[in-house]
Amino acid sequence: MNAVQEKNPLKRVNAEVDSRWTGLVERLHVDRSARRMLLLVVVAFAIFAALKPSVFLSGINLQNIAISSPEIGVIAIAMMLAMLTGGIDLSLVSIANLSAITMSTMFTAIAANNPDQAEQLFPLIVLVGLVVGLLGGAVNGLLVSRLGITPILATLGTMQIYNGIAVAWTGGKTLYGSPAALTSIGQSTVGGVPTLFVLFVVVAVLVGIIVKRTPLGLKVTLQGANPTAARYSGINSRAVLMSTYLLTGTLGGIAGVLFLARNPTASADYGASYVLLVIVIAVLGGTNPNGGFATVFGVVLATLTLQIVSSGFTALRLSAFQYSIAQGVILIAVMVIDQVQWRRRPRARRAAAVSS
Amino acid sequence: MTHPAPVGTPAPLLEVRDIVKQFGGVTALGGVSLDLLPGEVLCLAGENGCGKSTLIKIISGAEKPDSGTILVDGQPFTSMNTTDAIKSGIQVIYQDFSLFPNLTVAENVVLTSAIASRRKLYDRRTARPAAQAIIDDLGLTLDVDARVENLSVADKQLTAICRALVDDARVIIMDEPTTALTRTEVGRLFVIVERLRARGVGLIFVSHKLDEVLTISQRVAILRSGKNVVTSPASELDMRSIAEHMTGKVLDESRHVAAIDPESPAVLEVEHMDLPGAYHDVSFTVRRGEIVGVTGLLGSGRTEIAESLFGVLPPQSGTVKVDGKPVRLRSIGDAIAAGIGYVPEDRLTQGLFLEKSIADNMIAASMDGHRARLGTLDKNAVRETIQRLFARLRVKAPNVQAPVRSLSGGNAQRVVLAKWLARRPKVLMLNGPTVGVDVGSKSEILDILRAEAADGMGILVISDDAPELVACCHRVLVVRHGRVVDVLEGDDVDVDNIRKKVAA
User: Chain B, 330-389: which have a CB under 8 Å from a chain A CB?
Assistant: First the structure.
């Protein structure tokens, strides 16, 4: 039975649109989960654009989506990497905050003596922020790869430690102060697209290349797919895990820079809701929490979907709690659809065999 | 019953008539008919993908046939479900035995039938004697209170047999029952099989091991491409004719060993290697172009020797030289760096990334050898390597992106082999290279090994499959209680000789 030869004209049109759509997406060389996410982005966008076009489609709202996505997206990509090895990194948001607090403190301290010098040292300040991330990741990496502590426990511990350091350091207060250059980057655009979003895309592409096009990326993937076979293939799991957590820590540091670029403030409790949100995004983007399967593209699309829903809810004047319900519903709905597809597939094949 | 059985021949326990089964347009079974008599062992043989597994699933009610009938004691079932099958006395013992590892033998034996009869509570006082009765009845020495996870493979299998008997099994189907057993354990299993036969139980054996097939079964049914090509008494078949029926080709299982250049240097030299508790004072050499077999019973130390040379179990003392240079084997990384590759015994967990593609699996050990200038993978070189090996090893799959899980045992093993050939190791060790591999693939895999040896590789084959060792090995080391007790060479390498030395 060929769907295109369907008698019903409506169904025929539908089938044709379907096949065009899948054909188009297949040409983009993306896998099934990314394809599904692409559809979800379009659907979410269409729904809110239809419900509240005046607010949702306004330039400010679209800018907002583009400015708020990068920091979450970068952390979600880091989460995806940890999950790709079969692990998890709960300490990412704490690392990002610690990095932002370090940068802000450093800037304020130097600026107190010499404001011009503080501005000039902007690249160094950012570098220190990234190093904080790297060090945070190094501790995670040591715990997981050398001591063999389960990632969820190791990073739960370091999350508490990093967050505790941040609270003790700031006294729980919000710090003000950031290099003007960083803030202006946060507010600038490249061809109408916020620079922060461009940076997000650059980070995503780089991580994508690491995952798909380097020996390290393939080792990370295989380590997650079957650690025993990875060992018997000569993959050094310690080195692979260490590299992974160094990378996720550094991405946490980058997220810290993005925090500070977006708002010239830093505090220990910024982005507290991100910890679980990025897990939702990573899984929604097709990451298998057991390891071995993930795409950066899927995670980027999942980030956009949730940001679109978030800003759509704001446009409709719905509360943050209602948004949190929506997050849960989207995650579970996608998982349910996945399950249904898996179960239906053999039966559909059997039906096709009988009818042919 | 419509057709009363003639006097003299017993009525069949199980009849399968004209079973047809298609999957998505592919014919898995194209009208297969079989019968099983009481007190008979029928062997079901065939290459991977010939329809054996599908037929068993249909008989056990796990799959429904598209057409055809199953008769149990002459009573027809057009569509049988698993409960019908168990109630009619049909039990399947799969390769993994489907036991609960965390429960005791008694619990495993009794529990499934208790669940099937919808009993809500488990009574330990009745379970133990019930299980013990069956164990005694079969003359076994199983501890009813032992946890199944602590049992040997052979004892797990016996537990599964006892469980089948709780449900008054009259037809027992065993899927590859001897694959994981040593020769002695196989012997013990066959004694139990004889006892079951004496009680009128009919058994269907699904097996790859042709010599065992011929020892235990009264009749052999051979499937090829979903058709029952022959059913005949075992006495009228030999290993060669079975293999030919299975593959539809004339196969060569005889000894093919290329002469080695007498000047050929040693590629692997092992001197006084020692690991207490595993093996003692092991010394041997493998020359370039040579295939050396290592055989012995399970637990003799043969696997430990290989794992030591691969850095999994670093040796405590002794020296190992590759190409004349001493190497330290503290880790798998050391062994691979020294030019040693290892196709492990447990292909599914140690050898393969099942959910990953053939391409990813083939490149898994040689990624660092395929770097482009910026440290990224050289896509063209990777593709070239994968395509070359995919074609050379003749992996049967739609393309290199297919997940390895979808492959048969023989094709999966080719993928593991490809992973090492992509690195071009100096020494390649293979542990049970053709376990769970169909005969057609088996002879092709041995051919690949011969070709690699001819190309200058040194190959170590660890195996308890005597015909396989005879077919390809220049020399065979016999390991007993952790010591190399014999080295068979030249005309001494023959099946009977190897078996005798192993069991001595």
Answer: 332-333, 335-336, 342, 344, 349-356, 360, 363-365, 367-368, 370-371, 375-377, 379
Model confidence pLDDT, tens digit, residues B246-267: 877 766 667 888 888 888 899 9
In a shared domain, residues B277 and B332: yes
- Regarding whether B437 and B297 lie in a shared domain, the answer is yes
Q: Which of B22, B349, B356 sits opposite A353 (nearest CB)?
A: B22
Question: pLDDT tens for residues B277-295?
Answer: 899 999 999 999 999 999 9
3-state DSSP: chain B helix, strand, coil percent, rounded to 5? 35, 25, 40
Q: Could you give the number of structural domains in chain B?
A: 2
Closest partner CB to A349 (pick from B24, B336, B364): B24
What pLDDT does residue B131 have?
86
pLDDT score, position A11: 61
Report whether A77 contacts A285 (CB < 8 A): no
Question: Which tens digit of pLDDT belongs to each residue from A258-307?
Answer: 999 999 999 999 988 899 899 999 998 888 888 898 999 999 999 999 99
Residue range A155-183: average pLDDT?
Answer: 93
CB within 8 Å of chain A, chain B residues 150-169 = none
Distance between B397 CA and the closest CA of chain A, angstroms = 19
Q: Sort strands B317-322 and B90-93 into parallel, antiparallel or unpaired.
A: unpaired
Both tokens of B176, joined, read 């590859």
Structure tokens belonging to residue B235:
């006495």
Whether A225 sits inside 8 A of B23 (CB atoms) is: no
As a whole number, mean pLDDT of residues B57-78 equals: 87
User: How far is residue B398 from each of residues B360, B364, B391, measured CA to CA in Å?
Assistant: 15, 20, 12
CA–CA separation, A302 vs A309, rounded Å? 11
Cross-chain residue pair A215–B371, CB shorter than 8 Å: yes
Chain B, nearest residue to A291 by Cα = B355
CB contact under 8 A, A209 and B376: yes
Instruction: Number of A to B CB contacts under 8 A, please give it.
Output: 76
A231 contact B CB<8A: yes
Q: Do B367 and A292 touch (CB under 8 A)?
A: no
Going by pLDDT thresholds of 50, 70 and 90, the confidence category of residue A205 is very high
Look up residue A12 and give its two tokens.
Answer: 């025929």
Asked if A234 lies within 8 A of B354 by C-beta distance, the reply is: no
> Please, what are the domains in chain A?
65-344 (1.10.3470)
Question: Is B56 in the A-facing interface, judged by CB distances under 8 Å?
Answer: no
Q: What percent of chain B has pLDDT over 90?
A: 35
Report the predicted TM-score, pTM, of the whole model to 2 decimal places: 0.75
The residue range of the domain holding B270 is 266-503
Contact B457/B437 with Cβ under 8 angstroms? Answer: no
Look at residue A5 in the predicted model and tell me its pLDDT. Answer: 46
Give the closest residue to B88 by CA, choosing from B167, B204, B175, B197.
B167
Q: Are residues B292 and B387 in the same domain?
A: yes
Q: Taking residues B47-68, what's their average pLDDT?
A: 84
pLDDT of residue A109: 93
**Same domain as B499, residue B408:** yes
Do B220 and B301 fall within a single domain? no
CATH of the domain at B367: 3.40.50.300
All residues at 6 or more sequence positions from A45 whose CB lies less than 8 Å from its CB, including other chains: A308
